[in-house]
Amino acid sequence: MAILQFFNNKPNEEHLFRTMKALARFVTVSPDVPQLVQMIGPNPSTFKGTSERI
Question: Which domain of life is it from (predicted)?
Answer without folding.
Answer: Eukaryota
